[in-house]
From TrEMBL:
Enzyme category, top tier: hydrolase
Keywords annotated in UniProt: Cytoplasm, Glycosidase, Hydrolase
Lineage per the UniProt record: Eukaryota, Metazoa, Chordata, Craniata, Vertebrata
Span list, region Disordered: 1-42
EC number: 3.2.1.96
Ranges annotated as biased composition (Basic residues): 10-19
Keyword Cytoplasm: yes
Protein purpose: Endoglycosidase that releases N-glycans from glycoproteins by cleaving the beta-1,4-glycosidic bond in the N,N'-diacetylchitobiose core. Involved in the processing of free oligosaccharides in the cytosol.
Listed name of the protein: Cytosolic endo-beta-N-acetylglucosaminidase
PROSITE patterns in the cross-refs: BRCT
Pfam families associated with the record: Glyco_hydro_85 (PF03644), Ig_ENGASE1_C (PF25529)
Length: 723
């Protein structure tokens, strides 16, 4: 990142040692777009200090990476073969890099169990839309009609957090598509290999998992003859560079080069299926197509993704709220399913009923969508959807107003309605809820009824396949709505880990499972106070936190339930409504490991603008945009919270001896950088520096708050130009 302009200089002090602003090599061979700092060095005991002289000189950033008006980082796509071949990783691309690969899951994607693929096609793509039924999904394809669709980083982070593989789309269409394909497929191997290498490089750099290849235009004999070679080369290179990477082919072009959708795997498109990881069929199939494919697919039934258009366009078996009819036939024959455009729920139905319609749509498919299990600790979720009408941090409201940041979406539960077996009238329903939150923008609302004939009802929140460490701590934050006095507790289902085999976890039978109620943790060890400091307390907003300790050896955590029990002495049916704000399952030993610290916070890419004048008296305010960058080890963190304090002079407003200013939350970061946009700051007084301090707060995966003294920080001193 750039460190300074000719009017900017900064240095970081550690103890009594000073670091030079740039190495000799950097001065001879700077990075593209990087400006070299001046040699002036400011000493500061605890933080980096950057100096700025306010200037309104235009300093445009690349429009592909930043909104041209706000300079906010944006997701982008590539529109041509020339753009694809010219693309190289750039420092500006860093905002769109995902946190990491998909989280561990069971069964793995490589198992032969039929899979569920969801192909996102929402009004052209790159919108602020959302999805939260991830436990049913194995593969997510981000689709648009741009030549190269790079999945927005928020979607990749949300999917990976749930163990879901993410694919981008490479598509060619119409006459322009014919010209593009002729350019890279009709020649020798160097042309198609160059395209394949670029696609692999993009997936590797942005940390998504592969590509859907969709050639929807006719091909010359020369071009179609090279398609299998292109697919094999792309698949081989991707498998080498991206662990568990996938390349899928869409059923469109046949081996003769004609654009003729087959709606099945057959001898006309088999050569493409044999050259990659799977086939995504077209949507106008009948059961006889499925029956014929049984012989074509052989042992690769799970690699055939039978397409289902949720909009029900064309001659299809079922779509919309009858999509289950299609899935019933697909699963009957053992194939995987590719659900195309489930955004129908949002596009075509009442927007105000989106959550209800979304839950209805997926509940109708539930019996045909096997779930996958979480298989690693720590497991922490506040049920945040990555959006909301306000921001809340551990019960404290920090900001009011709508927000959207899909990277902030946390692990979502198994939504749905559950009824007691037999003739009992007991039931439990789960819904996401934006009306209240403990941490983030939403919570999980659970409503239910305990009938007189039973003492309690339970609902499974999560499926797990986690070997139990020697000691596990659990925490639940909840709030009962209304006057209900039902009891609320966590329950675990465990199995005998002796049935596991080396290198994986085998399926466990019901006979090896048992339900356990962990005992409450009343007096936490001193070193764990950061994590369990609120245990057993009534918290702000009516929230309650309960903590538990589990000591089990040789066992496997299989499921996490929440149990609702009738109050002592009650004989009537009990209705209840409970909001869950957070669930935590943490290996106790991980809480004793020291956290790394945020280091080397820098400020760069500064842009000043005059604020809109509100009156004639007094100097006009300023708007500051800039980029923060810092060093930290990503595996240890869920995200970073970025704050600021504004003041004047050399003293930190966040650490004033009398009344320190409470930092203002600016937003969340999921990489080691953050773009601040149009921050209002007071103008510097003549002869006196203005000051704004930036703070980077790491949020550990275990879910506790880090003391402010351990946050990363950098300060900017700014002044008016001398006249």
């Amino acid at each position: 990142m750039e460190a300074a302009t000719p009017a900017r200089a900064a240095a970081r002090r550690r103890g009594r040692r000073l670091r030079a602003p740039a190495t000799l090599k950097e001065q001879r061979d700077p990075q593209p777009g990087r400006r070299l700092p001046q040699r002036r060095i400011e000493e500061d005991q605890e933080e980096a200090v950057f100096r700025e002289v306010v200037s309104f000189t235009p300093d445009p950033l690349p429009v592909r990476y930043y909104d041209k008006d706000t300079t906010k980082p944006i997701s982008f796509y590539l529109s041509s073969l020339e753009e694809l071949l010219a693309w190289t990783p750039n420092v500006e691309d860093g905002f769109n890099v995902a946190l990491g690969p998909p989280e561990c899951r069971q069964p793995p994607l490589s198992s032969r169990r039929p899979r569920t693929l969801m192909c996102h096609d929402m009004m052209g793509g790159y919108l602020d839309d959302s999805f939260y039924h991830w436990q049913y999904i194995d593969i997510f394809v981000y689709f648009s009609h741009h030549t190269v669709t790079i999945p927005p980083v928020g979607w990749t982070n949300a999917a990976h957090r749930h163990g879901v593989c993410v694919l981008g789309t490479f598509i060619t269409e119409w006459k322009e598509g014919e010209r593009l394909c002729e350019a890279f497929l009709a020649g020798d191997e160097r042309s198609y290999q160059a395209v394949a290498r670029q696609l692999v490089l993009i997936a590797q750099f942005f940390r998504f998992d592969g590509w859907l290849i969709n050639i929807e235009n006719s091909l010359s004999l020369a071009a179609v003859g090279n398609v299998p070679h292109f697919l094999r080369y792309l698949t081989t290179q991707l498998h080498q560079q991206v662990p568990r990477g996938l390349v899928l082919w869409y059923d469109s072009v046949v081996s003769s080069g004609q654009l003729t959708w087959q709606d099945e795997l057959n001898e006309h498109n088999r050569v493409f299926f044999d050259s990659c990881d799977g086939l995504f069929t077209n949507y106008n199939w009948r059961e006889e197509h499925l029956e014929r494919m049984l012989g074509q697919a052989g042992e690769r039934l799970a690699d055939v993704y039978v397409g289902v258009d949720v909009f029900a366009r064309g001659n299809v078996v079922g779509g919309r709220f009858h999509t289950d009819k299609s899935l019933e036939l697909i699963r009957k024959h053992g194939f995987s399913v590719a659900l195309f455009a489930p955004g129908w729920v949002y596009e075509c139905l009442e927007k105000g009923d989106f959550f209800q319609n979304q839950d209805k749509f997926w509940s109708l498919l539930e019996r045909y969508l096997p779930t996958h299990s979480i298989c690693s600790l720590p497991f922490v979720t506040s049920f945040c959807l990555g959006m909301g009408t306000r921001r809340v941090c551990y019960g404290q409201e920090e900001a009011v107003g709508p927000w959207y940041h899909l990277s902030a979406q946390e692990i979502q539960p198994l939504f749905g309605e559950h009824r007691l077996e037999g003739n009992g009238r007991g039931w439990v329903q789960m819904h996401c809820c934006l009306e209240d939150a403990w941490n983030g923008g939403s919570s999980l609302l659970i409503r239910g009824l305990i009938p007189p004939e039973v003492g309690n009802v339970s609902v499974r929140l999560f499926s797990l396949q986690v070997p139990v460490p020697p000691k596990v701590f659990l925490s639940m934050v909840y709030k009962l709505e209304g006057p209900s006095a039902v009891g609320v507790a966590l329950e675990l289902t465990t199995g005998d880990a002796g049935s596991c085999h080396v290198g994986g976890i085998s399926a466990l039978s019901a006979e090896t499972s048992s339900r356990r109620s962990p005992r409450p943790l009343r007096v936490p060890p001193t070193k764990l106070a950061k994590w369990v400091g609120r245990c057993g307390q009534q918290l702000s907003g009516g929230w309650v936190q309960r903590c538990y300790e589990v000591n089990l050896r040789g066992c496997l955590l299989q499921a996490l339930f929440v149990n609702f029990s009738r109050p002592p002495g009650s004989q009537e049916e009990e209705n209840f409504a409970c909001r869950l704000g957070e669930i935590q399952v943490v290996d106790a030993s991980s809480l004793l490991t020291p956290l790394p610290q945020v280091q080397a916070v820098t400020v760069s890419q500064v842009r000043w603008q005059p604020a809109a004048s509100e009156g004639e008296s007094g100097p006009a305010g300023l708007r500051l945009s800039c980029t923060l960058h810092w060093a930290y080890l990503p595996p240890h963190v869920r995200c970073f919270r970025i704050h600021c304090c504004r003041g004047s002079g050399g003293d930190s407003p966040c650490r004033a001896p009398s009344e320190p200013e409470r930092p203002t939350l600016l937003g969340l970061a999921f990489v080691n950088r953050y773009r601040i946009v149009d921050l209002a700051v007071a103008p510097a007084e003549p002869g006196r520096d203005g000051r704004v301090e930036f703070l980077v707060e790491p949020i550990p995966k275990e879910g506790f708050l880090v003391p402010r003294a351990e946050w990363g920080r950098a300060a900017m001193l700014y002044s008016t130009p001398r006249t």
